[in-house]
């Protein structure tokens, strides 16, 4: 079984997330995409975060926007096992599910700052990764330290269906079509509406 791991704050979730999950499911030939709703992104300000239950509900609603909603699983795994750093989460998941072929999924904005994540080179060596293009971050992600450091492990997009079966490090780009949605913009619109 091949499973995409899609970590996020989902504060709130939106159709951009459904786009990422659906694109990865289809282009990588995955059986499931697990939306790992983060207790708290360690690099973000906790004061901006809605409660986990609210973000889980939001992720459930957004996952229904994906064409194959039945392949989407919304999970509070990190809260249940008490992990916050992705490296710890992936160690816990791979230890519990040795037979599953996992792929880490993220938008290209996160590739641009991936070298700031705890144990990022170990994450690259732990499981294959797919980066889904996001407007506003295309240049920065292509020139990112992580892209340069693992340039030789890059798999051509045309071979994306093979990625889940590959030994890490292995990563690929999933490009087009772009989805411009962001949680920051949705929170700003909601706050503006509240002050009308
Ligand atoms: N429109 C999008 N296109 C591609 N990737 C996206 C898009 N929106 C979110 N992502 C990716 O989804 C994952 C979870 O993102 P997150 O929940 O932080 O949403 P966000 O819109 O980036 O939130 P915020 O604006 O609060 O930072 C990240 O890997 C992010 O790169
Ligand atoms: O482990 C880290 O150092 C780390 C740093 C920043 C983000 N992450 C993870 O990246 C995923 C996307 O985060 P976000 O806030 O951009 O949705 C989510 O699973 C976070 O826990 C992880």
Q: What can you tell me about this protein's structure?
A:
- This protein has 196 residues and is α/β, with parallel strands linked by helices.
- The chain has one domain (2-194): HUPs (Rossmann fold).
- It is built from nine helices and six strands, in the order E-H-E-H-E-H-H-E-H-H-E-H-H-E-H.
- The protein has helices spanning 15-28, 52-63, 77-81, 86-96, 108-112, 120-126, 138-142, 145-149, 183-194, and strands at residues 2-8, 32-37, 72-75, 101-107, 129-132, 171-174.
- Strands 3-2-1-4-5-6 form a six-stranded parallel beta sheet.
- Helix 4 runs parallel beside helix 6 (120-126).
- It starts with a strand and ends with a helix.
- Residues 7-9, 36, 38, 41-44, 85-87, 110, 117-118 line the site of nicotinate mononucleotide.
Key descriptive features of the protein:
196 residues; 9 helices; alpha/beta; 6-stranded parallel beta sheet
Tell me the layout of helices and strands.
Layout: E1 2-8, H1 15-28, E2 32-37, H2 52-63, E3 72-75, H3 77-81, H4 86-96, E4 101-107, H5 108-112, H6 120-126, E5 129-132, H7 138-142, H8 145-149, E6 171-174, H9 183-194
Parallel strand pairs: 1-2, 1-4, 2-3, 4-5, 5-6
The structure holds adenosine-5'-triphosphate (ATP) and nicotinate mononucleotide (NCN).
Domains (count): 1
Major β-sheet strand ordering: 3-2-1-4-5-6
Average pLDDT rating = 95
Element order: H for helix, E for strand: EHEHEHHEHHEHHEH
Radius of gyration: 16 Å
Small-molecule components bound: adenosine-5'-triphosphate, nicotinate mononucleotide
CATH topology description: Rossmann fold
Helix-residue proportion: 25-40%
The CATH level-2 architecture is identified as: 3-Layer(aba) Sandwich
CATH superfamily: HUPs
Number of helices: 9
Terminus-to-terminus distance: 50 Å
What is the number of strand segments? 6
| Biggest pleated-sheet summary | 6 strands, parallel
CATH class: Alpha Beta
Write down the overall geometry: globular
How much strand? Answer: 15-25%
